[in-house]
Amino acid sequence: MSQKCARSVISYHNTNYKYTSVQYKDQNGTGKMHGSQRVIMFCLLTTVLPTTLIVSSLYLRNIRYADVMYKISDSDVIQIHKGQSSIFCEKHSLKMNNTFNAFQMKGRPELSSKRRHIKLKKSMTLPDDTLEYWGFFLFAGATVDLKACSRYEGSKILVVKGEKILDTCGILDGRKYKKDPSLIDNPDQLSVTLESPKGNNEQTTEISLDHKKKRDKEHSKEQLFRNLVEDTMNIHFNKTVHKRSVGNPPLHNPNTVLDTGVYHGGNANNTPNITEDASISSFENNLHECYHENILMNNFFPYSKECNSTSYLENTTTLKVEHKVLTDGYYYYIFYSDNDMVKNDIHVIFDIYKPTFQYTNMSESKVCLNSTECEFDISMFSDELVIVEVPTTGGFKNDNSFILTSVCRPRTTVYIFFPVSVLLLILLFAFL
Predict the structure, then answer these.
(1) DSSP per position, 321-365
(2) What is the DSSP letter of 319?
(3) If you compute the radius of gyration of the chain from its CA atoms, what whole number of angstroms results?
(4) Which end of the chain is less congested by CB atoms within 10 angstroms, N or C?
(5) What is the pTM of this model?
(6) How many whole angstroms separate alpha carbon 393 and alpha carbon 261?
């Protein structure tokens, strides 16, 4: 027989029946657990496992699949992953303080041949050796028509291809610059039209950007074009951590940005007046060294005392740039002034024509248009995600940003497993 357990056969007799039972006994002759074993099992079934189940359900509901807030702006198109699950979420609710369109679908939508027009009007005042830039994410097939003028001489435009966060090589904060790796690999074309303020002496130059021109170190008004080529690049998104507002969840960057709006930066507002004369601008040289192999264009543009607002550009062309995009990427239009006598006023109008996404063969339950609140049902084990796009108003791009709140409505049939499991564990202990 086993050392731990002995078997005994007990027979019962009476005149008509004979009963035989087989019992397993421990060494002490009892069929029950020791006191220490019962304590361990009691702690395990009534404390450890139930606590684990309860904490897991609270973590999933309040942290893993909690409400998520996104900060987005005009013309953004995002695909939402964070805080959503086809197992733990029964519905996906969206709410924003502006109208938006939402689509529930598998994968990402295809680009269509249809393009949308976005107009952007900007004015800036630049002291000497300062810059201000405007950046866009552009798909292949997009075009950018730009018109610009300046109040005084010395204004220049520099067009470069960069990443989502433009590397300024420390130029803006006075650190030593470092060169960015080349993002260009295939030829691109820019068409540049220069025109005098009176409308005479128009000069149009179309450049096939696979050769170099010498840099203008004496600041003469000749055109400067470099080895201007492009490469298809993967989109990288750096997650930015925002400070949490009291009582509100933190803001998040979207997991997948399919299309995005304007990136703006510069140091014009952080630089004091500069009065010293400099015949050679180390600031401009540093710009060239920083973006050397990623420059698409560098050009002076004519000035006029009549250039006092973007309205001047509606009927007059002083500088016109037509940029045909051949590969997806982030493109930055950098404006700076080489005039150490006065601050220069620069006015710009962007007309951007971007390919749009197409959403075809979709049922009404998968589409929500021009609304501030949307809700979609989520099938169990579905791989569908929601895509949100913010339309521009009348084609004009504004600088407003909006808060989109994404909510996972819990799937009750899944979450009820946790409290039911706790009850089953307690009942199981009662029979041990």
Answers:
(1) EEEE--S-EEEEEEEEE--SSS-EEEEEEEEEEEEEEE--S--GG
(2) E
(3) 34
(4) N
(5) 0.69
(6) 13
